[in-house]
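Milestone M4 deliverable, item 7.
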Amino acid sequence: MVSRKFVEAVKLSELKGYEIAHQAEMHPSTLSRILNSIEDVMPGDPRVLRIAEVLGLSPEECFEEVIEEQRL
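Output delivered:
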């Protein structure tokens, strides 16, 4: 899952969504699906990392930590 910081960086960017997508070499609808959690992403997803590069984010800032529930 992408981090809240990642989503906020896209929304607060001076670039429009389609410009971010274009610079990250993807279709704008792919960016939209990632931001709206319609498209599943795993940590290290190259699409997210390309967007992060456009926005000047580090890879660590892009993904939420997944905490697995421990069952007793």
